[in-house]
Structures are given as structure tokens and as C-alpha cells.
Amino acid sequence: MNAGSRERTAIVTPPVRLTIEWVVPLAETGPIHTALQGLLVAARAEPGCVGCSLSTRMGERAGFSYEETWKTERDLQRQLRSSRFAKLTQLVERATERPRIEFELPSGTRGLDYAREVRRGD
What we know:
Elements (H helix, E strand, L loop, with lengths): L15 E10 L3 H16 L4 E9 L3 E10 L2 H8 L2 H10 L7 E6 L2 E3 L1 H9 L2
Antiparallel strand pairs: 1-3, 1-4, 2-3, 4-5
Helix pairs in contact: 1-3
């Protein structure tokens, strides 16, 4: 390196992630899966979206695992305030067991309380 050149160090923040896992009755699998596919497409079109995924487990009941990854916490917070997220929560409310909801943030992992805080503007 030349004496006159400076090394630049970029501050890299890890992406943030929303993960939801829940179980629904088999009869509701098709409509919920269709709705989730639409939400995935919409999320992928949003600025800051790194990726989205959906997986389904079938048995006596159906289990969904839904994940969104965002570049920054600000990107995620914008989504938590959106009508798209409100639709997602309506689908999760159809769970037959308590869903697992996690937000992986630079400050640590949080639960549903994080979404409530963001939506209230805390």
C-alpha cells in the first residue's frame, strides 16, 4: 500500500430476519399456502428485501415455516408497519398451536413483542 493511500473499512451490518413457524388444520393448507405465496412475491419486490422462503410440512396437520431476510433493521421495521405484514399476521392467527415468531436483529433475538413495539411506534 502506498504511503498516501488509505484503507477503507466498510461497516457491514448483518441482515435481519423474521421467522415464523405455525401449524394449521389440513383443510386450511391450500388457501393459506396461496396467500403466503402472494405475500412472498410482494415482499421480494420491496426495497431492502434480501430473500424470502416458505416451506410446508404435511402430516395430520400442516406446518408452515415462513422467513423474510432484510438488509437493515429499518427495512424490517418498515415492513412490520405495512398492510402486507397485517395480512401475514391474520394467516398466523389461524394457528392451532402457539406459533414461534422470531426476529433476529443486530441487538439479539426478539419475539412478537418486537413487532408490537414497532407497530405502536415505541
